[in-house]
């Protein structure tokens, strides 16, 4: 008999360069934007939404916008955040000239006290990465996490990794709603994995559909 488990999957909150398109012109790390002011509010409301769901662990992409989202959720749930490189951005060479830099893991806990050191990621993506390689990476990541994690957990990623995680669990080619801070809930029963929520944003004042990148 398969054990029951719930995996919550979400995309990070709204990012500063979506609000201020000129931000990257003077940013020291233009490929790793933080949350915007409304993105911070989204993350806080996401945390409030999840307070009573019995989540035992939180994993996050190493990109700043995801870490900030996960950290604010973790404050609501009183949990640590574990960095998971496999949840990171799709390393599409059409978006990035080189592998994008993120905050060094040794600096994360100084900025975000909820982040657990050291980084013990189960998957380390390579650059560049095709779409098929992204799907293989996210499938390997989420399948490893569900087998090694006994608790229900939340994983914070990006549009592409949210889709990859959901597709890997439920199978097929589901149409996944990966709006900013939208919640996907996937539950394992005896008959397999079932998607019980597909991009729920009812706890937010508004969603941010129609962004130019799936990131």
What descriptors fit this protein?
Rossmann fold, disordered C terminus, 215 residues, seven-stranded mixed β-sheet, alpha/beta
Instruction: For the record, give the distance between the C-alpha atoms at the N and C termini, rounded to a whole number.
Output: 37 Å
* Name given to the CATH homologous superfamily: Phosphoglycerate mutase-like
- Tell me the overall shape: globular
**H/I helix tally:** 6
Q: Spans with pLDDT under 50 lasting ≥5 residues?
A: 209-213
Q: How is the CATH topology named?
A: Rossmann fold
How is the secondary structure organized here?
Layout: E1 5-11, H1 16-19, H2 37-50, E2 57-60, H3 64-77, E3 81-83, H4 105-111, E4 115-116, H5 131-148, E5 153-157, H6 159-170, E6 183-189, E7 192-200
Quick synopsis:
The protein has 215 residues and is an alpha/beta fold. It is built from 6 helices and 7 strands; from the N terminus they run βααβαβαβαβαββ.
Account of the protein in words:
With 215 residues, the protein is of the alpha/beta class. The chain has one domain: Rossmann fold (3-Layer(aba) Sandwich). 32% of the residues lie in helices and 17% in strands. The chain has helices at residues 16-19, 37-50, 64-77, 105-111, 131-148, 159-170, and strands at residues 5-11, 57-60, 81-83, 115-116, 153-157, 183-189, 192-200. Strand 3, helix 4 and strand 4 (115-116) form a beta-alpha-beta unit. The longest helix is centred in the middle third of the chain and has 18 residues, at 131-148. It is globular. Residues 209-213 have low confidence and may be disordered.
């Amino acid at each position: 008999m398969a054990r029951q488990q719930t995996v919550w999957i979400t995309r990070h909150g709204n990012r500063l360069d979506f609000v201020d398109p000129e931000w990257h012109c003077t940013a020291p790390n233009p490929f790793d934007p933080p949350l915007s002011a409304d993105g911070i509010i989204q993350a806080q409301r996401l945390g409030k939404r999840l307070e009573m769901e019995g989540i035992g662990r939180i994993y996050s992409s190493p990109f700043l916008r995801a870490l900030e989202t996960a950290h604010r959720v973790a404050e609501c749930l009183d949990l640590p955040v574990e960095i998971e490189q496999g949840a990171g951005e799709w390393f599409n060479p059409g978006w990035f000239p080189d592998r994008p830099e993120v905050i060094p893991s040794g600096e994360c806990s100084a900025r975000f006290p909820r982040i657990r050191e050291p980084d013990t990621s189960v998957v380390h993506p390579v650059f560049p990465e095709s779409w098929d390689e992204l799907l293989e990476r996210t499938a390997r990541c989420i399948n490893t996490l569900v087998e090694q994690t006994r608790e229900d957990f939340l994983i914070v990623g990006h549009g592409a990794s949210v889709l990859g995680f959901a597709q890997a669990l439920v199978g097929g080619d589901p149409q996944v709603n990966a709006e900013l801070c939208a919640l996907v809930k996937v539950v394992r029963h005896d008959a397999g994995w079932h998607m019980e929520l597909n991009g729920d944003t009812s706890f937010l004042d508004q969603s941010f559909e129609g962004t130019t990148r799936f990131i």
